[in-house]
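User: Fold this; tokens only.

Assistant: Input:
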Amino acid sequence: RTEELRAAQEAAKAGASAVKAAHKAVGNWLRDSKVLMDGFDQLSEQVASLTSGPLLAFAELKELTHEPEPIEEIDAAAFPKVAAAEVAEVGLETGTDAVEATC
């Protein structure tokens, strides 16, 4: 029975600590809520500043632009393939040597 009594006393101590912590948390609730709401107010002001400044300017600029015309696809079959030998005959350099020569 002494073990049960000790267990009950430890549980009572733990419960008393929990109650004390809960009372402290309730006491800090208003201060914590104020800090949270001040942060919310600051972020709300930043959003308002963004929407009335840069986003508004972007929307106005977007209205001034037009949609680009679609690019037509090129039919590769319409262009004959040129062999490297033919290119060499014309005197053009090909391959990586040409790139290195220009650099």
